[in-house]
Amino acid sequence: MDVRWKKIWRDLTLRKARVAITLLGLAIGLWGIGSVIVAQRVLGDDLTTNFTRTVPPHLVVPMRGLDNGMLERIKALDGVVAAENRPILGARLAIGAERHLPLILFVVDDFAALDVAKVFPDYGTYPPPPGSVLIERDGRPLIRIMGGNVPSAAPGGHGAPQGEPAARGDDLQLSLPDGSTVIAPLAGTVFDPGQAPSRMEMMVYGYVDRATASGWLPGGFGDRLIVRARDDGFESRLALRDAVAAVIADGGGEAFDFILPAPDEHPHQFQMNTILTLLLGMGTLGFLLSAVLITNLVTVMLTNQIREIGTLKAIGGSVAQVMALYLGGMLLLGLVASLLVLPLVVRSGYGLAWGMSMMLNFEVLTTTLPIGFYAILVGLGALFPVVAAFVPVRRWCSVPVRAALDNHGAAPPMDHSAIARLTASLPLTLRLGVRNAFRVPRRFVLSALTLAVGTVVFLFAMNLRASLLNTAEVEDERWNHDLTVRLAERMTPAELAWIEGFPWAEPVELWDAGAAELLETPVHGSARFGLVAVPADTRAFVPKLTAGTWPGAGDTVGVVASHRFTSHYPGLAVGDRFEAEVAGQQVTFELRGFLKLFGAAALYMDAEGFREITGADGVAGRMLYVTRKPEAELGLFEMQGLLESHFELAGIGVSGVMMSQMATRIIRNHLLVIEVMLGVVAFLMLLVSALGLATGISASVVERTRELGVLRAIGARPGAVYRIVGAEAVFVGLCAWLVAVLLATPVSRRLNDWFGTGVVEYPFDYATSLLGIILSLAVVVVLSLLAAAGPVRAINRQVVREAVAYE
Amino acid sequence: MSASVELAGACRSYETAAGRFEALCPVDLRFDAGQCVGILGPSGSGKSTLLNLVSGIDRASGGRVAVEGRDITAMGESELAAFRGERIGVVFQFFQLIATLTVAENLRLAMDLVGRIPRRDRDRRSRELLARFDVERHRGKLPAALSGGEQQRVAIARALANDPAVIVADEPTGNLDGANGAVVDGLFSDCASEGRTVLVATHDRSRLDRFDRVLQLEEGSVRSDSARDDTALVEA
Fold it and tell me: Which letter, b or e, does each residue of A742-771 get, where b requires 16 or more Cβ atoms within 10 Å of its Cβ?
């Protein structure tokens, strides 16, 4: 082996503990960022590929009067690749005694010949036998989460409990839009990556053939045209929309809406992008923090060897040659860390990808990565410490020979008379510790900042968690009711009187809703939005506006847009006017404000104003808000069951009942996986930054070896040395913690808004985690004391003579 | 005889809190090849400063320092390091061997850094030098395992590794006992007899008879400069 490499190796092995700590920190940093990079590389286009495999439609038209002749004419249009009639039915799936989940039933003409919006067999019988139903595979875990009976286990299926026998043929109880109930055997499960995951949307997707659906609903049901275009450009799709609209009009059909979904992008692609970006950001930060470990290690080495550097230069070594000796060590360290951590990186990267695929219900298609990719990862990991160490190595190796040979290590105490005055009343050991912290201001700042960054990330993770819970709570507080009942038809006054007779509820609140189709085309999705009519004296809802004012009673022009609405019309501002069609009337709305509300994009207006422009009956409505009487001694599930029976007796069709606490579950279900990932990464960050502090303290102790030896020579016991160094470490830790607490709130607020908007198009309601502040303080103090323990132990083991003679 | 080392008005001063400190006042000196020069003086007299200027370890505040006719004060850091490696051997009071390398590796490193000695000859040269200074048996040991005298002999061997024209030694016997000091002095005489210029700083007047020429410094100035047979100076 070359003598230079021997020196490099021996220099590293001389400081086993310190090198091990640095290696650990570097490995953690590499692990964090490497895992996210591998996950990104694995997922790459997987979600999009999963989605595009379904051949998603470029145009969706809910309509009436779509017959075979019209469908053939649409298929023959220029630019149309495939077209199909795929109606959807809003139904409900019973998951236990009086418990339901919303069920979207797709009616499929021919399961064997799907040209657009394809689904893939997952388990069971495909196509489903007549009278049976298939469900999307992500529905099963949802049903289990909701505490319902899990329909037939699917071996190997998504989330299927292992070893459970296949029991295809279990009966499902479905409530149909007309209020009727049917029992349908479960034929199996399909994989439909074209849909948002059931667990996030809190709904199940089902698939039946047309004959079955027609048998269940003899009164018929609406059509839904789905069209795949050759060219997915926006202008082309607009032209296609117009051409399709003309065919529908010619054929006597009636289109209710023309929806232009974002082309070939999964509905939750933005979630994956946001989560990966956040994790990548945190991973990068952790990786960069490990640079501090390298800097500290190199500083300790160079501090110890400054006279050796002088000697090397005195005997003819150039600055570059001497630098190469130390940078070579860093290269070796980086290479070892990279190679050690690579298997873990690959495993956790795939694990992360798998977690994302579980969360968003898609399949990981990339099973192998090219060797070159791993080589680049290892190369970057190996080079990183070299880059991190370059500046201190250059600085120390550029010290003139004479100055290097005259160097005796410890920096003289700085003239900080102010600090001396401030610490004068402290006990002696504490005083020494605090003053020592300021001895090398650059190191003090670096160590404190490193720990502060780690603590900020930790606090951010805790604050984000608190904000999630707060968002759910705030959402709950906005809704002063227990159950929301969506009615199949608008309620008549007689029906309302019947419901008022329900003994366990307060007087119900009836809201109306319609649709508003904006004349201006949105940047994506449909121009058709829900228009919710809110009674002026509502008790069920406490609107929280982020801007503007709530429309007054009888206002026929003013509307308030929900937060999600702005993603469709990003430029919209309070005071803007826009044209829309409501119930066949063209109206001009003025935007009065923005409403922060979890859920779909919608417009809200005063109920009286709504009735005036739509001519609706004053007592009719589509949504019922029910509040349990305080004295009613029954659970919500029980009340829901009784209420449904009450509706059934009156022959009132219900298309959905949701508990107000459901919002909490939806929010939590969206973010459970992310919360776990964030927690893990945040803890690792804190650990890396604490290792940074440990190496900083270690460097400080090494520089003061002789001084501490003198202290011991004049009678200081090992405990006293530990108190001095421990005080220094805790002081640095507390400074870092204070900085972190001050920075955490503004940083968390911004990231919280960005993350919420990115993941659920809804900025979370921010909350500072008091637990996070207390926990971080405790963790910082404990880690600081641990950081001091290692170096002090080493110095206490040294005999006093060696310490005093140390140069 | 041609001048191997020449100082023309070379001086060195430092700015201190107490004001400007003249470590070495302007001096004009020349040292010839084959001379073994003793530089005498008490602590703070400027001995080390003079040697540092000659070896290029320190920069002159003024004047010129030339080694083998080349002005080292005009050289950049890299050029100076390369030149020093090839033409000047440095010996320190505290030996300054690389603690993590064996005796043989210390010599090998010096040759590897400079690259003057062909690669194939380096191990042989290392063995020869160690044998010459009677430390060959320690070639595989780390410096800490050697006595002070042995370490200093290794350090001199290392200084000779690249076959320099000038040897600069700052208090090389300051850390050795009398017997080991005498051995080291002998080695320096041998180096001079090979045609090298050897400059040795010492505060030990009992050793002056080992040098061809003695330069006495006091408070940064040359107090006297004389050949060995100048009894008056030696006795001064």
Answer: ebbbebbbebbeebbbbbbbbbbbbbbbee
